[in-house]
Design a protein that fits this description.
The protein folds into two domains: about 5-220, Type I PLP-dependent aspartate aminotransferase-like (Major domain) (Aspartate Aminotransferase, domain 2), CATH 3.40.640; about 225-335, Alpha-Beta Complex (Aspartate Aminotransferase, domain 1), CATH 3.90.1150.10. Helix content is about 40%, strand content about 15%. It has helices at about 5-15, 20-35, 45-55, 70-80, 120-130, 180-190, 210-220, 225-240, 270-280, 305-310, 325-335, and strands at about 40-45, 60-65, 85, 105-110, 135, 145, 150, 155-160, 175, 195, 200, 255, 260-265, 315. A seven-stranded mixed beta sheet has the order 1-9-8-5-4-2-3, sandwiched between helices. Strands 7-6-12 form a three-stranded antiparallel beta sheet, with no helix packed on it. It is globular, with a radius of gyration of 20 Å.
């Protein structure tokens, strides 16, 4: 525990203000500065709740979501919209294909593993149809598209601050939007929808970030760039080993955040995972397509590319405490599987 963290913790305990206080405001301000964002930052208690607040604020009734994404993306639409439909992914970038069905009035596109979507194409499609464009940027801390921070694209973006993310507040999320009136509304909605004491025009959520989570976030944020540079070194080491057809293609004009490193191993995927497990190395097979989750199987259409990708993909270890030798060990095990 650093002296700064201890001082902030004591300040919270002495003030008796545990939610939406000075440190939440400071975290929002420093998050904006760290990533050089133009938009307003609104801290909430989770990425999913941030998406739910946005869908509610924008009055989205039928939402397009990727089939290849974490369940939280679809869950947000389930709880906030009348209905949703799935779209398929691109087999190279893993992101939602820029295609807008005519029967939706909102879009959530995910920057999968931190790889930016085709933001200009999505902007063209949604602007033409006057459709709100939300980005699930859970993995995308530090990503850019055409030199611009990824959070400044779309109607709004939501970043995750859960324990596995490059910036963590233990739990939490950060909404970024350049629409100030929307940001003001979100600040009301995250506090039950209350504008004055026991006066509400719109039903909201208890989606507030606590002061305790905010000081964890501030601590993590202060270490982001050194940790991120080390993460990129680890990715470069992985990329020396794998053929480009086995790895996620970075979207043109984009800088990938590399929250995860995924490889496509085809029929050898399960053998590789077993070999890694035998060496005490954890790996993961995700995302399971939303349409394949038991809770959505009856209501959502399966998408061909998403299903194909899921059968081949494996997430290899990638975290700040890894060394280059650890990456080489993982690669040696993968290479030894026939």
């Amino acid at each position: 525990m650093t002296a700064t963290f201890r001082s902030r913790l004591n300040a919270i305990l002495e003030s008796g203000v545990y939610t939406n206080g000075q440190f939440v405001a400071q975290f929002e301000k420093e998050y904006k500065s760290t990533f050089q964002l133009k938009g307003e930052c609104v801290a909430v208690n989770g990425c999913q709740s941030g998406l739910m607040l946005l869908l509610t604020a924008l009055d989205v009734n039928r939402c397009l979501v990727p089939d290849f994404t974490f369940s939280a993306t679809a869950n947000a639409a389930y709880w906030s919209c009348r209905s949703m439909v799935t779209g398929d992914c691109d087999l190279k970038t893993f992101n939602l294909k820029p295609k807008l069905p005519g029967d939706v009035d909102g879009v959530i596109a995910t920057h999968v593993f931190g790889n930016p979507c085709e933001c200009d194409r999505w902007a063209e499609l949604t602007t033409r149809e006057h459709t709100p464009l939300l980005y699930d940027a859970a993995h995308a801390h530090g990503a850019t598209f055409k030199g611009k921070p990824i959070g400044d694209y779309g109607t709004a973006s939501v970043f995750s601050l859960s324990p596995t993310k490059q910036v963590t507040a233990a739990e939490g999320g950060m909404i970024v939007t350049q629409d100030k009136s929307l940001a003001d509304r979100l600040r009301i909605l995250r506090n039950y929808g209350t504008e004055l004491h026991y006066h509400q025009k719109t039903p909201g959520l208890n989606a507030r970030m606590s002061e305790f989570h905010a000081i964890v976030g501030l601590e993590s944020l202060s270490r982001f760039w050194p940790n991120h540079r080390h993460r990129l070194d680890l990715v470069e080491e992985y990329l020396r080993f794998f053929d480009s057809t086995q790895t996620q293609k970075v979207t043109p004009n984009a800088i990938h955040a590399w929250k995860d490193f995924a490889v496509l191993l085809g029929p050898n995927r399960d053998k590789v995972q077993a070999a890694l497990a035998s060496a005490g190395i954890e790996s993961k097979t995700y995302f399971r397509p939303v349409s394949d989750l038991e809770c959505y199987r009856e209501s959502l259409h399966s998408q061909k590319n998403s299903s194909q990708l899921y059968q081949s993909i494996l997430q290899l270890p990638l975290h700040t405490n890894m060394s280059l030798d650890h990456v080489r060990q993982v690669c040696a095990i993968v290479g030894g599987v026939k």
